[in-house]
Amino acid sequence: MSEPDLTKPTRQELRGLLVIFVFEVQKAVRAFWPVFIVIFAQKKLLSTSMTIPIVIGLIVLLLLTHVILTYLNFYFFVEENQFILKKGYLRKKVLSIPLERIQSVNTKQNLLQQLLNVYSLEVDTAGSAGKELKIYALSGSYTEYLTEFLQSHAKNTHEEGAESISNNDAEKVILKLSPSDLLRIGISQNHIRTGLIIVAFGYQIVIQIQDLFKEETDAYSDSVQNVIYSSGILFYTGLAIFALVGSVLATLMWTIIKYYGFELTRHQQSYRITAGLMNKRRVLLPFTKVQQLNWETGPIKKIFGIFNVSFKQAVSKQTKQKQVVDAPGCFQHHIESIRGELFDHEEWPDDGEKIYAHRRYFNLLWIQRGWFPAILPSAFYIYEPLWLIAGGSWLAVSGLYYWMMARKRYFQFSKTQLIVGKGAFSTVWQQAEAFKAQSVDFRQSFFQKRRGLASLRVNNASGQMNIPYIPEDVAYKLMNYLLYRVEAANKKWM
After folding, report:
1. Of 338, 232, 250, 324, nearest in space to 281 by CA
2. CA max distance for the chain
3. What angle do CA 319, 327, 353 make, to 5 degrees?
4. What pTM does this model have?
5. How confident is the model at residue 151, as a pLDDT?
6. Distance CA 437, CA 233 (A)
7. DSSP at 10
8. Residue 463 zone, left/alpha/beta (φ > 0; ψ -120 to 50; rest)
9. How far is CA 11 from the centre of its chain?
10. Which of 172, 283, 306, 484 is the one with CA 20 to 30 A from 439?
11. Cβ atoms 161, 81 nearer than 8 A
12. How many angstroms separate the Cα of 382 from the Cα of each of 7, 81, 242, 374?
């Protein structure tokens, strides 16, 4: 098959009209769902049997017209080292991204796209506020060629990029998750967080139903309250068990949906990650654009010996969470392999001295987040013993939690790299190269200055690495050396 001409203005696949229509319907529903509920809930507004079909027909007709016009006025092409996208029929819009500014090129497939055998393509830059350059319907071969072309053209000409694409190096599979791996990953996730999300989501749904059908819910509220009060502790025990089981099942389901078919491969000087069941995603991640590598484990993960690895790229504040690419279920040898490819093994700080946060760091955390919340309701302690029990329990639990957090805070440093350790119940490691630091903030409160302590915040293009409550002289030396490495480095930071 001949290579496509990327300089020629190209439309999306014709069968992608259905995909675009579905996306526009989703946008309309998200934007106007309260209006739709109010209209269809008011019988006076829809008095005849033909009114509802007529309203739905008009809405569908308007959306179809909008989708067809959007499709006909949507073009993309490459011109003079610029990737250009033109769209819009009432308000014309031209997006132009220099090829060397492209941060990542990701592809996705939801269920409908998988049925139609088309792909979505998203192009991100480090300074963009969102994924404005998004194409919804491309063929598989065209998507693969365009992705390779855009990623390989940091500062190359079209001919140089074409040579890079034709250089078909063998791919090396680093990690491939089986169904049993997904089961272990799902079991080791944070089920408490999932349970809280389910409770919050369910509570919002109940509130919305009560607002819409106030008369009907008021008629049953008294009987429901009576059942709860009469059941007593049995009701709350059953509710807790139900929430726990629901949380575990929801986490397992979420893990399977997100990571089904997960595969991490190395292709030339990039990682390629493929994963997803209902929304299949494919991310190409060049080594040079990884600003920071994080890996973490927790109590249950330790039993299975697995880690979660996150590759952090250059991002804007608005898209920070979108730019974190993760690889779950990694073993120790996977982490060693990934670190060896992203960082110079001879410069790893692992054998260097671990400098821990001062014990005053624990005092600060416990006073601010433990004692203050416990003291605030102290007026109730005299009249209600349960408040006193709750306050004492909070002090004990928060003290244990922040003690665990303080004892895991440390950093290690070599000539070129920095590792920061943190966590409480889980343990997180962050590693970055010194020359990729964007800035270093030196922070020192009045209480820190009296005790000769200070805190550092090392900012890079993907976020920050915090080093709290270390000796003041160490903080100054580390800050000055990091800034020196940034000035002296002649490597590309992305």
Report:
1. 324
2. 83
3. 90
4. 0.79
5. 77
6. 55
7. B
8. left
9. 30
10. 283
11. no
12. 78, 73, 35, 14
